[in-house]
Amino acid sequence: MLQNWFILLPEICLLSFFAIVTPKAFMHKEVTAKSFFSSVQLFLLATLASTVIFYNKSAFPSLWQNSSFTTLFKFFMYLLAWAWFYLSSIWFLNKNRPSGYFFSICFAMLLGFDILASSTSLLTLAVVIPYICFFYYKLILRHWDIEQVKQPAKNYAFSALFFIILLFGGICIIYHQTGSFSYDEINKFFATKGNIPTNITYIGVLMILLGIMFLMSIAPFHYWFISFIGRGVLPVCGFITIIPPLIYLCTLINLINRCFPQFINYITPLLTIFGGISVIIGAVSANGEKNIRRLFGYLNIYCNGVMLIGLMNFSNSSIVAAFAYMAICILSFAGIYTVFLGIKSKGDYLSETDAISGFYTMRPFMSAALLIFMFSLIGLAPTLGFFGYLSIINNLVEGGCWIKLLFILFGVLFVASSCLQIVRVIYFETPINKFDRSDKAIYICLFFNALLVFISLINPAWLLYDALLILGSIS
């Protein structure tokens, strides 16, 4: 019993954060974002360390089970969370606004992501996904002007309720047929000769998948994400863009490989359809978008679509390719949102493309960093993004998936066009605003992020070598 408490240290560390932050928020009148971040650092580092130490230990393996595979995704999640919380604390300090509630909601979501990534039971999905959706709703409402985010929050709440009901319905169908919630038991049931899936079974699998697709903001379920991303505060927008995607990818891979491997021939075309829709909507909608955050929101949807297309058949090579591509995209988006934190005039953070015209003339380093991150999203050599696209394309070529490849190449043209619009505004138009001096911390983060993205000049595999070894041996 004592051993289980030690194994649960990552989850205990996340929960312990609330025991520290809540009294601090109520007992001290003058609490800055920096003082909250001190607690954030302590508990995140403790969570990260204990996650690595107990990487293959599980207190409740029937509900969630840790492995080197799930630990890899969690490790990336906590590192990204630490970096983004650091930058978010700067935003709260500049705005002179309390940050305790924001960090508390984010820690609650990290706890949900931690369990979701290691899920081994449909019952875990049924509990954790509504939990995450609830805190998503609370996070969306973190705005000093509640009217700006009230409508996106309502859209999200009604949509989340609908897809949670679908998820519950799908889980009930699978349980009724198999008598179990366990991934392994469901797998054994359908692997047994004579237990042939019926049409109702396929509908149940589809309903479960739709719940996960909604979480991932896959088109056509992306409307809540786009409606919010242009209005929300930067810390919230950055968090929901950067942190969850890899966890959702881990959850999807776990679900298909452990629970529904017999349904892969049915699931792959579905994911390809959703991926293709996301690629087209994301890439085309980004063109002509005047709000820079919404523009990159559409590009985020595009990247999710490419990842789904690249997953094909959930083989080792396709999982490796999807992970490499998504990790590189998230690194690029993290850099882009870091630049967003430095684009402000007279204390206001700018989000319209016209407002950042001529940004290069006043902030050449930040403009150059943004250029590198955009080139990485496009997949231009020698940025790390080229390695990500190459992983996906090589896998599609080897599988003879030429139509899927055409979808991606079609999308790249529109992505390049939308990014070139930003380049034109920043580099070739006359400035209309005077930009405020940015914090040194932003420049430091940009330097290291740009260095990681550009390190592919030497050897791109250095950044992902161990990760690829782990992913390459999961099945």
Helix content: over 70%
Give the amount of beta strand, in percent.
under 5%
Order of helices and strands: HHHHHHHHHHHHHHHEEHHHHHH
Mean pLDDT: 85
Radius of gyration: 22 Å
Count of discrete domains: 2
Give the tally of β-strands: 2
User: Which term fits the overall shape?
Assistant: globular
Structural commentary:
Strands 1-2 form a two-stranded antiparallel sheet. Helices cover 75% and strands 1% of the residues. It folds into two domains: 1-259, no CATH class; 263-475, no CATH class. It has 21 helices and two strands.
Explain the layout of strands and helices.
Layout: H1 2-7, H2 9-27, H3 33-53, H4 68-95, H5 100-117, H6 122-140, H7 146-178, H8 183-191, H9 199-215, H10 223-229, H11 234-242, H12 244-259, H13 264-286, H14 292-310, H15 316-340, E1 344-345, E2 348-349, H16 359-362, H17 364-378, H18 384-398, H19 402-428, H20 440-454, H21 461-471
Antiparallel strand pairs: 1-2
Q: What's a concise summary of this model?
A:
It contains 21 helices and two strands. A two-stranded antiparallel sheet has the order 1-2.
